[in-house]
Structures are given as C-alpha cells and as structure tokens.
Design a protein that fits this description.
single chain, de novo design (two linked rop proteins), flat, about 75% helix
Length: about 180
C-alpha cells in the first residue's frame, strides 16, 4: 500500500465549496417561495386589478367578434377602439406597476383608468348603435366599474401628497336688502 499525502485543497476551493453548500441550503429554504412564484413571474401579475383587466379582455373579445360579424362596417371603428382601449388599460397597469417613482406609477395607473372609461363608453356606443343590448354588456360594465375603482385607489396611493391645491375659501354673501337701501339713496 502506498502511503502518501492527500492533495491539499486551496483556500479558494474550500471557500467555493462552502459557498455552493450555502447556496444549495438557501435554495432549499426558499423552495416554498419558488412554487409560489411559478404562477406569477412578474409583479404586475400579482395585482388583482391586472387579473380583472385580463378577465375583461377575455370577456370582450367574443363580443367584439360577434358584433363585427353581425353588424359589419357599421361599427368596425367602435370595435377596434374597444379592443385597443382594453389592451391599453392592461398594458398601462403592467407598465405602471414596474415604475419605481410614485408619480410615474400614478400617471400610468391614471392612463389605465382612462382607457377603462373608454371601454365603458365604447360599450355604450354599441348599445346606442343598436348592435348590442344593455343585458349583453352588463357583465363587462360591472368588471369595468371594479377596475376603475381599483385603479382610482392605486392612483390615490401613489399620488404625491404634496400636490398643489387651492385652499377652501368661504364666500360671504351680503344681504340683498342692504343693496336695495343703497340704490334708493
């Protein structure tokens, strides 16, 4: 049997091994987080309002196809605008949630709220043009109402509290009888 010294490992090799071991154990501890994050890969996907906007896009797509098929060119512009506005609300919410500055976040959420209001007006236009009914669009309007209220709360949360605004001033009205007395003199 040969006797010899075992090869010595360098300090850097041992440090690398310890770091690898720590990383593996850290990964094992964070394993619970990994399965949570598999469903949601981006932060905006965790927002309830974003999920509602996705639900609205899913709801409105068949309506747009149905209206385009039945009404033809009569309402094509309204349908295109409805499609663009629904996607705009979704995209602005996602982009706004990715902004770090509160003022920018509030601006994107405000844009998303405006797009959601456009969607509601497009649905009203479809009813006004007699290509859809109030009952058919009620589900979409309910979703939009929830979306707008959630976006409004997000805007209020991220709007700077030091916004410039006027103070409330109470105006005093003089008694009319006093003016009548002055006119007589």
């Amino acid at each position: 049997m040969l006797r010899g010294k075992l090869p010595r490992t360098s300090t850097t090799t041992r440090t690398r091994e310890r770091t690898t071991t720590r990383t593996i154990s850290r990964r094992a501890r964070n394993c619970n987080l990994e399965w949570l994050m598999k469903k949601y890969k981006f932060d905006h996907e965790k927002l309830d309002v974003y999920q509602l906007e996705l639900q609205f896009v899913s709801w409105v797509t068949p309506l747009i196809e149905e209206v385009k098929a039945s009404a033809g060119p009569k309402v094509r512009e309204v349908c295109n605008h409805l499609d663009r506005a629904s996607l705009s609300a979704l995209f602005n919410t996602a982009e706004g949630n990715g902004k770090r500055q509160s003022k920018l976040r509030a601006r994107f959420f405000d844009d998303a709220r405006g797009s959601a209001a456009e969607c509601a007006s497009c649905l009203d236009a479809l009813v006004a043009k007699n290509v859809s009914t109030d009952e058919r669009i009620d589900g979409g309007k309910d979703l939009l109402q929830r979306i707008v209220s959630m976006l409004t709360k997000l805007i209020m949360r991220f709007s700077p509290s030091s916004e410039v605004c006027e103070e409330v001033v109470r105006y005093a009205f003089e008694d009319e009888d006093e003016h009548d007395d002055e006119d007589e003199n």
